[in-house]
Design goal:
The protein is of the alpha+beta class. Helix content is 35%, strand content 19%. A hairpin with a 4-residue loop joins strand 12 and strand 13. Helix 31 runs antiparallel to helix 32. The longest helix is centred in the first third of the chain and has 19 residues. The protein binds one RNA strand of 89 nucleotides through helix 10, helix 19, strand 21, strand 33 and helix 30.
Length: 1084
Amino acid sequence: MTQPVPGFAQSRYPNKKIGNMEYQFRSIEKKWQKHWQDNHAYRVSNISDKPKCYVLDMFPYPSGAGLHVGHPLGYIASDIYSRFKRLKGFNVLHPMGYDAFGLPAEQYAIEHGVHPAVSTKQNIDNFRKQLDNIGFCYDWEREVRTCEPNYYKWTQWIFLQLFNSFYNRTLQKAQPISELIAAFETAGNAAYPMPDSSFHTASFSAAEWAGFDETTKQAILMEYRLAYCGEGEVNWCEALGTVLANDEVVNGVSERGGHPVVKKKLRQWYLRITEYADRLQNDLQKLEWSDAMKEMQTNWIGKSSGAEIDFVVSTSPQPLSKGEGQKEPGYFTSTPDKWKALIDYAKANRKNPTAAESALWAVLRNRQLNGWKFRRQHPVAGYISDFVCLDAKLIVEVDGGYHSEAEQQSFDALRTEWLNEHGYTMLRFSNEEVLEQIDTVKSRIEEVLGTPSPLEREKEGEVVLRVYTTRPDTIFGVDFMVVAPEHEVVAKITTAEQKTAVEQYLDYVNSRSERERMAEKKITGCFTGAYAINPFSGRAIPIWISEYVLAGYGTGAIMAVPCGDERDHKFAQHFNIPITNIIGDAYNGQEANPTKDAVLENSDFLNGMVMRKAIDVVIDKLEALGIGTRKTNYRMRDAAFSRQRYWGEPFPIVWVGNTAYALPESELPLLLPEVDSYSPGPEGQGPLANIPEWTDRQLETNTMPGYAGSSWYFLRYMDPGNDAAFASRQATDYWNQVDVYIGGTEHAVGHLLYSRMWTKALYDLGHLSFDEPFKKLVNQGMIQGSSRFVYRKRGTNVFVSAGLKDQYETDALHADVNFVDGYELDIEAFKKWRNGEYANAEFILEDGKYLCGAEVEKMSKSKFNTVNPDMLVDKYGADTFRMYEMFLGPIEQSKPWDTKGIEGVHRFLKKFWRLFFDEQKGSVWNNDAPTDVEYKSLHKAIKKIEEDTERFSFNTAVSAFMICVNELSDLKCNKRAILEPLCILMTPYAPHIAEELWHALGNAGSVLDAAFPVFEPKYLVESSKEYPVSINGKVRTSLSFALDADQATVEAGVLANEVVQKWLEGKPPKKIIYVKGKMINVVI
RNA sequence: GCCCUGGUGGUGGAAUUGGUAGACACGCAGGACUUAAAAUCCUGUUCGCCGAAAAGCGAGUGCGGGUUCAAGUCCCGCCUGGGGCACCA
């Protein structure tokens, strides 16, 4: 721990007049910073009998622009909290490091040829210098940098953990993939449904698994891995030869240069975070995060429950309903007018399946037979078949089922004709066969089915449109369907007449980014010419495409219910689609009503039912009919985990043909190789694709994204030097969760979700004893810049003062805030700016001054509104700077920076100093016994500051300091018994001045390790209170009563008061409200 | 567009649970000390009305409604600033 400074054992300032005793903040701060560093005052041990406390700042990216005053806000807050906890007797871990991989360094490398490692190191050195200036208590021996091999070795190691794991849905946890393989070998994948059910080999037996070749096996395993490789769309800019971030694409062209950007499919790695969706959502309740933050994560995960419903597609609205003999398209399984009648038959029957039917269904359902989809009691050509696989044109009948004479006869002719024409096969089994020899039956069916290829399945058979809806209760209010423009079904269903219109629309959509599409207010869309058949009413519903439906969410298709959904309603109005009202008076014809509590009308079997209840009724019915399933959906998608960049962690993956294999752990770290050029490889691949030695080894050429390193850095701080593990179990057990995590809301979903997922995965795999990384989260607001503008007359070098700018045609230009005083421009400084670019500028002044315009914007170098903390620390000292940042306002609130108020905080510190020292007389503190008033002032401060610091209300704590120092100054109190505890109280906020004065009082050890003063309530006890007395809620006077005064005493006192009497005008009051300790209100 | 969040004097903000709106600062005005300046100290400072002053009256927490003895705080509807929306980190 901290050693005493030589010569400081006794008071450095004896009680005698010494020359200049003013507050020399800079020399004091430098002295103590050096002392603390030399004595390792901030070194933290992993072994301690004190309770632990882990206080963490969000990982900074060391940008080349350096720190501006916005950055340290959270760091100061966490620093104060850490120091406070240390005084309260905790072993506090408070580390700092750098998220050092990232795009800006790579961009800088491309433009200037400087290796990212070099520029990153420079930036870090600069960052560090600036941080040190402010006097933070980080244990720098624990610093980590994500770009260093001894760090990213473990990033790669964790990646391999994820790659070599799958999510066991039954146990709801990650497990080694070896266990999955073992399960496949013994029982196939029946117990482990594939996360992506549309994968071509969705189910297989143990025997089938054994028969698969290595490539197939690996392809199947890839479908399960928590880190997996697939294909994804990126913003590809041919002209720049690179992949662009969403925010680098504006209006379909690149932000830099305005080149066209198109979607391109590339190999991408993903994290299967969707498997964790439920746990990520449920475990939020364990966390002390703001409700807003939990809400944001919940919305991002976007869990919703509803149903997937299959609609049969038709390309003409009313086939066969008018002209007899009209030819049915090949994918028709029924016709709208007959459908309803058939459904009615089916309904009754499906509820009461025979034992044989149930047994067979158990074998056929859920695409169990090589992925073939079966339906039961499904209408085919005006006839209800027991089971049908439409894709394979196979009908399976079980004798003893429902076949009335009348029905047989009425549909027989049509059925025979249709079946012949369309090449259907029919298999018939007896009840006994099914019940007693189910395996034989199964293999017969399999024989006929063969192995389907996706091509075959699409070649003929029906087209089914599957939609996802959270409101199946509104099924009778569906007036149109909307399909995502990129949905694969679009090409299949678009009619010849609509082909041109659809293609034009697709061109339009392709030029737009996902964000633009979601933000679009104007309504766009295009009719495909096809119709979906409502399975209950048989109604033909037009199918549209529109950009507001995204392919990635749900099934990429929705059923639109205009009377209940605002967006659907606007769409219907815009395209003149008639609106069906299913909720009677609850729909006013003008705007949609999304209620769930209306009573349904126009809804067949749902009529009279409350919507909320109808949801389940409809889903049950859909499931019974085999045309829909209950479905939980998540808005969250798997996290894209690869970048086509150089400056990131290489993947420890080798490719053998099309199969990815993990490098053995012994080959970690896989070092990032040197490159000559940072420009992208061929076909949008990363720069690593340009290195022959790399590609010769068949190594993965993508690199990991920025969030790879930052998803686990909080673990590394616990044991940063460990080269046998990412951190020892002993260290992670001891430090456990981060107790307080401070950072901005901009990380609300990305970083905070990924870190939670990684922690959970490591926990599942037995590497950690906790499954949530950050127990408490404090969100700091953003410090904005207050920009200043000058107005240049267009095409000239003449600048017009803000008040006169409307008289001219002008362009607003950012002026550097550092040479604007308030709004007045320092013209001479401006002329020298930017190498004299404006040296010859002329100015049109108002009242002899040039006034600037102002606007609040993000603080950024490009807007010339940054303020450098170094400058302020230099002028006022680190302690003043720290306290001023806290004094600005609540930590979680965003506010524009204004340097002006800093003087007030500086004056306060000087005033504090003067309680100890007089400029002329030297030391003035004494050992006199304090009075009760002085104790009261101190203990009021102890109470307030302790409470406020604990709840992160630093601005009010600073003001409590000011109040206390003002009171002590007024009392002329220079008593050591008061000042010494005040010094300790001040330590977290202004450590340098506190340490200096602590030693000045003759203390030997460091104030950093002093004990936080104990609040004693006895000094604050009052016997009476001055009550505000209101008449009808308006304060008119005040009266003093004993604190334990009862209602009668108070009423008597109040009524005797002349102000009250004046307002009463002789009448008795209606009521007198007396809230003990608060107020009195007289109601007249 | 969707999600989150904020709006209180000239300025930053305070009011922790519905109970004296404007604490603490900045700025401004006036004064003391000084040859002067800096520093420091004192007084005033929500707005309007009345008044020499004291006192008093009215309005007032983005806008419009509502609940309550009492609303910055709770409810409904609007306006508006900021953050996020999956490759910035």
